Amino acid sequence: MGTAKGSVLIASDVQAILPYTKKVVYLDDLETAHVKGEAFQVFDANGKPVEKKVTTIDWTAEQAKKEGYPHFMLKEIFEEPRAVARALAPHVDVEKHAVDILSHTGLWSANQLSAACASIDRIIIVACCTSFYAAQVGGYLIEQFAGVATSTDIASEFRYRKPVIAKNTLAILISQSGETADTLAVLRQLKKMQVPVLSISNVKNSTVDREADGRLYMNAGPEIGVASTKAFTATLALMHLLALDLAKVRGQLKLNDESRYVRALLAAPAQMETVLACDKFFSEAAATLKNYKGFLYMGRGVNYPIALEGALKLKELAYMHAEGYAAGEMKHGPLALIDDRMAVVMLAPSDSLYEKTLSNLEEAKARGGVIISIGTVGNEKLRALSARYLALPRAEWSVNPLLESIPLQLLAYHVANALGHDVDQPRNLAKSVTVE
Ligand code: M6R
């Protein structure tokens, strides 16, 4: 509930209240509120009056305005370099190029940290949709850097199985809103099982934030567009730091490598700024792209979840059929879909899987697919094979997801716009999914 002059505003998400007031009261489960004018009284499940704390949100009402952009989504995409910089800032020493994030979670005291992290045998990361794709990137990075077995799960699936949780498991829950019903149910389930839960959320004092054992913040600022953009890339940045720090604390990361990857992450916001120039590329291409019968998004390794997220963005905004696939899976089925009316969006940055991805791309092209590729500057072979080619700045393999996300968001934004859809409020969708 937001308490404003003359009224009390009720919403499932603080973003909705922010234009009117920064003073909020969070209702807990089974509580009810009696509201009259600007007065309110909260009661517990037994009808007993409860005193509630009024909290001040540290976001400004300006942050919840479009600031000259035609849509919140476009504004939020253009904010991504700053959002990523804000996500990184509290956990990185910019002089020493060192990471320190695990000690900020509140899960362990300074003298417990290294023993506690050394004893983690398994990590599970649970979330919904876009946050789940960020989880998949995070899981990949944790395994590659820290060598800790990591699995990722969709919250609505996890909660209705009997998940087998090994001893010494750390759970990480990701939720931009911190109010997603399925994610919250998983949090409570895990807590009952006495699994320590670290939450990553964007909304301070949201239910997930309040109930988790430890917490990290995306620091992306209010995200108003229904399609998640800046919260996604901010989460990718946090997951990268977590993977590096876990590797470091467990003695798996050389000092040189720590410095190299932290520098790469610190360089990412400026690189993302240059990637935003592709706005024009997609605003011009949208008139053609909107006529394709469907889109296949492909990537390998850490880029695969970005392909899934790219396809989701197009589905939710342009209402076009789009699928994300691991590029190596193409010949196992999706190749049959390809003809000259099918667009194939290939994520092929310069990394250890580049040559393999290129051969998947050749297969798609040979079947008549229209290739839109996103690669690294100087990938001439990729350019030659593509109908449209977008070159990203050179970065560490693990930083590429941050750079690739922006073009995919802009592609979906412009195609949706060209089709005349409401990009900020796509049909049938809500920003926070507080029911099953
Ligand atoms: O707030 P959460 O991160 O828990 O939300 C999860 C999904 O509901 C969210 O990612 C949603 O699918 C967005 N529309 C994605 O753009």
Q: Give the CA-based shape.
A: globular
- According to CATH, the fold-level topology of the largest domain is Rossmann fold
Major β-sheet annotation: 5 strands, parallel
What small molecules does this complex bind? 5-amino-5-deoxy-1-O-phosphono-D-mannitol
What average pLDDT do the residues reach? Answer: 95
In the sheet with the most strands, the strands line up as 11-10-12-13-14
CATH H-level superfamily of the largest domain: Glucose-6-phosphate isomerase like protein, domain 1
In brief, what are we looking at here?
The chain is an alpha/beta fold.
Report on the architecture of this protein.
The chain folds into 3 domains: 2-64, no CATH class; 72-273, Rossmann fold (3-Layer(aba) Sandwich), CATH 3.40.50.10490; 277-418, Glucose-6-phosphate isomerase like protein, domain 1 (Rossmann fold, 3-Layer(aba) Sandwich), CATH 3.40.50.10490. Helix 9 packs antiparallel against helix 10 (255-275), helix 10 (255-275) packs parallel to helix 15 (400-418) and helix 12 packs parallel to helix 15 (400-418). It has helices at residues 14-17, 72-78, 80-88, 113-118, 129-146, 155-158, 181-192, 207-211, 230-249, 255-275, 278-289, 304-318, 354-366, 380-385, 400-418, and strands spanning 2-4, 7-9, 23-24, 32-36, 39-43, 49-50, 55-56, 92-93, 98-99, 122-127, 149-154, 169-175, 197-201, 214-217, 294-299, 322-326, 342-348, 370-376, 388-392. The strands form 6 sheets. It has a 5-stranded parallel beta sheet, sandwiched between helices. The chain starts with a strand and ends in an 18-residue tail after the last helix. The mean pLDDT is 95. It is globular. The chain is α/β, with parallel strands linked by helices and 436 residues long. It binds 5-amino-5-deoxy-1-O-phosphono-D-mannitol.
